[in-house]
Structures are given as structure tokens and as C-alpha cells.
From TrEMBL:
Keyword field: ATP-binding, Cell projection, Cilium, Cytoplasm, Cytoskeleton, Flagellum, Ligase, Nucleotide-binding
The protein's name in its UniProt record: TTLL3 monoglycylase
Disordered: region residues: 42-94, 207-239
Stretches with biased composition (Basic and acidic residues): 55-93
Catalytic reactions on record: L-glutamyl-[protein] + glycine + ATP = glycyl-L-glutamyl-[protein] + ADP + phosphate + H(+)
PANTHER family per UniProt: PROTEIN MONOGLYCYLASE TTLL8, TUBULIN MONOGLYCYLASE TTLL3
Pfam families per the UniProt record, alphabetical: TTL (PF03133)
GO cellular component, one term: microtubule cytoskeleton
The keyword Repressor belongs to this UniProt entry's keyword annotation: no
GO biological process: cilium assembly; cilium movement
Compartment(s) of residence: Cytoplasm, Cytoskeleton, Flagellum axoneme
GO molecular function: ATP binding; protein-glycine ligase activity, initiating
Organism this protein belongs to: Pycnonotus jocosus (Red-whiskered bulbul)
Cited InterPro entries: TTL/TTLL_fam, TTLL_monoglycylase
């Protein structure tokens, strides 16, 4: 057995087929072994890949060849290790039953891996990393894979594409920057004015229906209800009447906003009239009564016509008017956390600002939080909210080369969609969030594991009479959003020849089937949470290896479900584009 192991190791070293895996990736390990690669296993305790000295002890090799073991093999997992490392230990133990892999791994401990698949780039020794030929991670991805970074990067979109950011990315603000916080406050107020006009027009007979009745059960653990839920009474309580100028003020604000959108204020040096034209504190309190307490609004015929005309003109200027609804819900997110952790929603301006301050403790700053307009009118399936996890691979940043995966999956919530109560079970589609609510089932037609493949989704669209929506609207929209985000972020990403990365983008679909980019995740989970993800995650890992390894030796080999989304022409450029560009000058006087 020792002789056989040495022969396989010698061949792998000659063909440069030494690999290392850090993280829960048994599929990657199995596929590489099947290609004749030999693994340099990582130490169980430190979980770090470091350069090893070349003086291996011959007696340890012989001991392993005889089936013996050493302290490293007998070491028990650390009980305080992260869940992902525990899972990897379990997977490795099951694979290590074939002792020849242990033996070959020991024989290559002094070899620099030719291929590395890691869950964290920071776990790799800095001196060793530059010597590894192929790595599955890029450094410095904050500009793309944090919510704050993506929000900032996409603001540069006009430098790269003549595309309106608001057509694919819900409005987003970084609360730690005073200018953006003020912009958010103004946006919240303007949205409230538009929402008031919508509520005023939405009537059935004699009663406004701008809001929906709250469900009977409104208590779900996992989200502080005081922050996110403002249920409305089943019958309107007697309250003081609204002041009569409320609708007129909303109309005035919207007219002022239209003038700003039409650039009629281009030479103005004073603050935006949208900020000063009315008493906003009083207006918002009255708006809350209309939106959340069902206080009735009575419009004259003239006011109805004015509201309809203003909203029609706003719709021509505001791409997000159709998804923003009329309850002015915003979602507050920590910048660098994943799996839905720390996310809360609110319908009130003061709550958003208070939440941002209260969340900013000793370990966090306000600038690490973003607030984003919540999509109040998403496409639902069986009255249940869902989102889409879409994979893509970047194999080079300079020139930018992107591959789009043609398979993806949908993630469902556990309770029917409702804006009366904003708990996670209804509004956060993350698998790690929804697994807390395994006993809840929104509709018997939703699968128990709350996962659909894109094929099942297309079948559902066909039943709705929208069979072409997937290829005509959804897929092109996702491709365009991904490419726009990559173009904006690439100057801030660490580019390294030989590296690649598999990303997971999350999209929400509007009622018009338009996809809305929510975030982009580096190192997306490959854990099989369902029958669908077990198949698709295995496939995308297999096809990724085909793309980055097999294709080098055989450019015509199959790359599975990947298709080339974009390959930039290799043109050297010295121009650095950023936010610091400015134009200075002085006015010309008539002679």
C-alpha cells in the first residue's frame, strides 16, 4: 500500500495535482480525487494551511502505511468550533475510512497545493498563498459582497453604463454618512406623500382600503414585534379628524418633487423645497393615522383628478413607484452579516433612526448599517413571498470575465405574505431564518422544505399564462443587474491571476416579473437543505471545476450549465474612475 501511495503521489506532484480544501465541501474533495488529485489535508486544530518543513519523519510514514495512527488523527474536535468546521470534521471522518488518502496526504505535507478551495481566505498563510496557482477566492470583496459596499459601488453606475440604478436595485442609503442619512429622511417623507395620495384613491364604496386586515395570529418568535408590527384595529376608533390641508400638502410636495425631477431647480442654492414646504413632523403623524389606523380621507372630485394626474406623472419619472406600495416600509440591514441576521423592518421614520442608533454598540458603528426600501408589491406564489438564489462565477477581473449559471432555486417563506405584520417568517426568505419555523406551512402547495427549482418555477409561470416571462424578463434582468454590479465594484476588488470565485446573488421578483437585486454573497452555502439544493449544489460545484480546471486542458470540454455572460476586451487603461472627480471653473461675463 505504501508503494501504491508513493506512485500516486509522485504522479500527482509531476502533473501538479495537489489540492487542499478548507470548509464543508465533500463534493469538491470527491470530484478532485476522481481526477487523480491528491489532497494535502489541513490540520484539524488550527484549520489553517501553512507552509510545512520538508523533513518528514520516515517512521511516521511507515506507521501510517501499517495502519497505525498518531495524535493528530486521534484529536477530538474542539467543542467550541464553528458549526461549519464541525460539519467538515464529520464529513472528513466518513471519507477518511480509506487510509490510503491519509497516507498520501501525509506524503505531500511539504508540497505547495496547486489548487485551493477555502471558505475563508484569511485562514491561509500569507507567505504560502501567492505560491498556490489556483484559488477559489478573491481578496477585498467588500465593495461587492457587503450591503454597504454594494450600495456605495452602485452609485458609480453612471460612469460605466447609461442605466438607471433605480430600475434594478431598491433605493438604499448608508446611515453612517450624514449626507445619505439626510437623503433617506427626504426619501421617506416623499414616499409618505405619494403613499397618502394612493391611499386616498383606494376606496371601496365609502371606506378607504389602503391597508389590509391583520391576521388573527400576529405573534411569531424571532423578531421584536414592537419594532416591526403596527397592526390596525378591525374597526376604526373614534379619533380627532385629520386636518383638512393634508391632501393639499401631499399634492404640493409631489408637485415640488416633480419640478426637482425635471431639473427645474438646477440653479437653486437654497435647500430642496421638498424639505421645507410643509411641517413634516405633523404631516408624518397624520400619514401614520391614515396608513396604519385607517382614518378615512374624503376627496373632492377635483382632488381625485389631481391625485391621479400627479401619480401618473410620477410614475413616468420613478421606476420604483410600482413596487413601493403605500405603507412606506423600509428594511434595516447590518452591512456585513449574512443569513438574514440582524435584519428588521419598520414603517416609521423615527423607529428606523432609533434602531440604527440602538444597534450601534461597542462592536458596531452606525455606518455599518444600511436602510433600503422594502419591496411592498412582490410577486408571490400561493400568497407566499419567495426570492431567487442565482449563481455566477468570475474567472478574471482584468479583463472582466463572467459566467452565468443557468440553474437556480427559489426560497419560500413560512407564512403568507402580509404587510400588517413584518416578522421574519413572512418576509425573510433565507433558509437559515426559515428553518426556525419548520412547523409552519403557508400553503399545502408550497413544498415542505420551502425550496423550488427554476424548472418548477417556470412550470408555475406557464400555468399563469406567462411561460415566456422567465426567458424574456427575469433571466435578462438578473444578468444585467449582476454585470452592472461587477462593473461598478471591480476597481475596488483584489484581482489575482489564477483566482476565481463562485458568487450567489439574491433577487426578488416584482409583480411585473422584473427582478430586483438584493445582495451578492461570496462563498455561498453549498449545504444541501433540500432535495433540490442537494442536486443543484452538487451540479454547480461539478461544473465550476469543469470551468476552472478541465477547460484549461480542453477548451471544448463541457462546462455544464454555465454560459459565458461577459468577456471584456483586453485593453490596458490608466484611467481610474471614482467619486472624487470634479469640475471647477468660473462664469463668463459679457464684454
Amino acid at each position: 500500500r505504501l508503494k501504491k501511495a508513493k506512485l500516486r503521489v509522485e504522479k500527482a506532484i509531476k502533473e501538479k495535482k495537489i489540492f487542499a480544501v478548507q470548509g464543508p465541501y465533500p463534493i469538491i474533495r470527491r470530484l478532485l480525487r476522481a481526477r487523480g488529485w491528491v489532497e494535502r489535508k489541513l490540520p484539524r486544530k488550527s484549520r489553517q494551511l501553512k507552509q510545512q518543513p520538508g523533513d518528514q519523519k520516515k517512521q511516521k510514514v511507515e506507521k501510517r502505511a501499517a495502519g497505525g495512527s498518531d495524535k493528530q488523527r486521534e484529536a477530538e474536535p474542539n467543542p467550541h468550533r464553528e458549526d461549519e468546521d464541525k460539519k467538515e470534521d464529520k464529513e472528513q471522518c466518513s471519507e477518511d475510512s480509506d487510509d490510503i488518502h491519509d497516507l498520501m496526504s501525509f506524503l505531500v505535507q511539504d508540497q505547495v497545493p496547486n489548487f485551493l478551495w477555502t471558505i475563508r481566505l484569511g485562514n491561509i498563510d500569507r507567505e504560502l498563498l501567492p505560491r498556490i496557482e489556483v484559488v477559489n477566492r478573491f481578496p477585498r470583496l467588500n465593495a461587492l459582497c457587503t450591503k454597504e459596499g454594494l450600495c456605495q459601488s452602485l452609485q458609480n453606475l453612471p460612469w460605466f453604463e447609461q442605466v438607471d440604478l433605480n430600475t434594478f436595485f431598491p433605493r438604499c442609503y448608508r446611515l453612517g454618512f450624514m449626507g445619505e442619512q439626510e437623503a433617506f429622511i427626504e426619501d421617506f417623507r416623499l414616499t409618505a406623500a405619494r403613499s397618502l395620495l394612493k391611499l386616498a384613491l383606494q376606496k371601496v364604496g365609502d371606506r378607504p382600503v389602503g391597508t389590509e386586515q391583520p391576521p388573527k395570529s400576529d405573534r411569531v418568535s424571532g423578531w421584536p414585534r414592537s419594532h416591526v408590527s403596527h397592526p390596525m384595529p378591525s374597526t376604526a376608533r373614534p379619533r380627532s379628524s385629520l386636518y383638512p390641508q393634508l391632501v393639499e400638502e401631499a399634492l404640493e410636495v409631489c408637485e415640488q418633487h416633480l419640478s426637482v425631477l425635471g431639473h427645474q431647480d438646477i440653479d437653486r442654492n437654497t435647500p430642496s423645497p421638498c424639505r421645507t414646504c410643509i411641517a413634516w413632523d405633523r404631516f408624518l403623524q397624520e400619514y401614520y393615522r391614515v396608513a396604519h389606523e385607517r382614518i378615512r380621507l374624503v376627496l373632492s372630485k377635483k382632488q381625485q383628478e389631481q391625485c391621479q394626474d400627479v401619480l401618473r406623472r410620477l410614475e413616468e419619472q420613478l421606476p420604483q413607484l410600482g413596487i413601493e406600495g403605500n405603507l412606506n416600509v423600509w428594511i434595516l440591514k447590518p452591512s456585513a452579516k449574512s443569513r438574514g441576521r440582524g435584519i428588521v423592518c419598520s414603517k416609521r421614520l423615527e423607529e428606523v433612526l432609533e434602531l440604527a442608533q440602538s444597534c450601534a454598540g461597542s462592536s458596531a458603528r452606525v455606518c455599518e448599517w444600511v436602510v433600503q426600501k422594502y419591496v411592498e408589491r412582490p410577486l408571490t406564489i400561493f400568497d407566499t413571498k419567495f426570492d431567487i438564489r442565482q449563481w455566477f462565477v468570475v474567472t478574471d477581473w482584468k479583463p472582466l470575465t463572467v459566467w452565468f449559471y443557468q440553474d437556480c432555486y427559489l426560497r419560500f417563506c413560512s407564512r403568507p405574505f402580509s404587510l400588517c405584520h413584518l416578522e421574519p417568517a413572512r418576509h425573510l426568505c433565507n433558509v437559515s431564518i426559515q428553518k426556525r419555523y419548520k412547523t409552519l406551512q403557508p400553503d399545502p402547495r408550497v413544498p415542505p422544505d420551502k425550496i423550488w427549482s427554476n424548472t418548477e418555477f417556470q412550470e408555475h409561470l406557464a400555468q399563469l399564462g406567462q411561460a415566456d416571462a422567465w426567458q424574456r424578463v427575469i433571466v435578462p434582468g438578473m444578468k444585467a443587474a449582476i454585470l452592472n454590479a461587477l462593473r461598478c465594484a471591480r476597481d475596488h476588488v483584489g484581482s489575482r491571476k489564477g483566482s476565481f470565485e463562485l458568487f450567489g446573488a439574491d433577487f426578488l421578483i416584482g409583480k411585473d416579473f422584473q427582478p430586483w437585486l438584493l445582495e451578492i454573497n461570496s462563498c455561498p452555502t453549498m449545504s444541501p437543505s433540500s432535495v433540490v439544493t442537494r442536486r443543484l449544489c452538487a451540479n454547480v460545484q461539478r461544473d465550476t471545476l469543469r470551468l476552472v480546471l478541465d477547460r484549461k486542458d480542453n477548451p471544448t470540454c463541457s462546462i455544464g450549465a454555465f454560459e459565458l455572460l461577459y468577456r471584456e476586451a483586453a485593453v490596458s487603461s490608466c484611467l481610474s474612475v471614482g467619486l472624487q472627480l470634479e469640475v471647477t471653473g468660473c462664469s463668463l461675463k459679457n464684454p
